[in-house]
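Bench notes, bay 3.
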Amino acid sequence: MTETSWKTKKYLSSRLLLVYSVAASVGLAMALVSIAKLALFVFGLAILIWPHVTSSKLTHQTRLTLPLNTARAVLGVLLVFTLSLFWTTAETAESVGSVAKYGKLLTILILPMLLRSKQEIVNAIAVFVLGQFFLVLSSWMLFAGLPVPWATSRTASTEYAVFSTYLDQSIMSAVTAATCWHLRDSAPGRFGKLMALVIAVICVVNVLFVMSGRTGHLVMIVLLSLALTWQLKPRYRWAVLILPLLLLGTLSVVSPKVQKRLNMAKSEVQQFSIKEGANVMTGSSSGIRLHFWIRAVQSISESPVLGSGVGSWSNEYNRLETQQNPASFKIGERGNPHQEYLLWGVQLGIPGVLLLLTFLAAVFRDTLGADQASTRAAQSVLAALAVACFFNSPIYDALIGDFFCVALGLMLALVMHTSTSASGARANQT
């Protein structure tokens, strides 16, 4: 083996091992996610730079693939949040820590640059799906009363979440189901397509009949509606407007979990309106969210142009609460209002909400131009993120945020490759 071929093989194995480790870790224990993410940022960047700073010529393709619209949006987001350090009301440790939390968005850019062929991308997505499948199987084992010694969640025995919360896990499983369905024809192996369909069904049933996450239920309903709508002829695709309502109505009858959580949400909202002005921090999940959202809107109305700076939500909430009731409950550092759009609004004002929408729009633009399956898979992940942002802060939060960044990075890598391949094929025909 020549020196050049040895270096090329080492380069390939290091690069793919890093990607596969990150793809498998998301959704598992937070410690594993953190280690894999740190390795991606440190060694991934080193792997990308190495061929360009050495005199060695690798025989393997080293051209980088980068989703340009998403790259501009991510860098813009990080720049704006960093600039807001100059006017933030948060303490230095909290504000700098919050900027670092948004740094996970760079994962979306690094992964496509590390993957150089369709086979590599498909294998990485397969590893990603298998990691999530392990999570879902573990949830089913908990549901069946079987021992799951690796489960570390505080709600493992009651809500069947394995490592995180039932809220995070139900969203991740919904995204996994959509990924398997849309990319079933690309699944590797002789029985890859069948396996993808089986995983998709297992995930759907788990989310809708086992898990209790209301946001996960909603995300699954939206993704199922998109999948059904895309199967219709174009002139019938207006059905996407009514399919979610039909699915929600059906599930509220056939799924005890969905029915229970819907009734609970209705009751919690009614109780909140009755008890308005009381200390809701000891109350229901829906009541706390509504209370947070009201305070977030108040904060935005006071600083609509610049906001209160990165990491300022906890300070803003506590300040507004103290004005109403000096003895009210105070939240800790790096909290969030359980709504990503409002969180960006509190930190950056109305321009912050527009910045988040711009980021989502940029990712959407980069999903276009590829083959149908890749585009639909990528847009399903993006739709899940956009919906989840209405009820939680999935970008800011750990684990679920890493999950979405890895999922989007893998999907955009596939989209960029298939769109490039399609362009090359059209060029060869002309």
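Next record in the batch:
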Amino acid sequence: MPVYKYKTYQDARDALIVKNPDENYYKMLADFYETFGKIFTKRFPHGVYKFKTIEEAQKQKEDWILNRLQ
């Protein structure tokens, strides 16, 4: 990935805007949002679950997260 130097904040801000998006740009954007959705969306099974210890509850939560990412 190239490193760019800007003289002003406005120049850097203007560089964030893609003026002529191509097909590859839209594919990269779709991939980004798909990955973002997998990582940051919490989807757990409905219902109330009882656990004997906090560690047991944490383990179940980790299992749900890991299974979602696969």
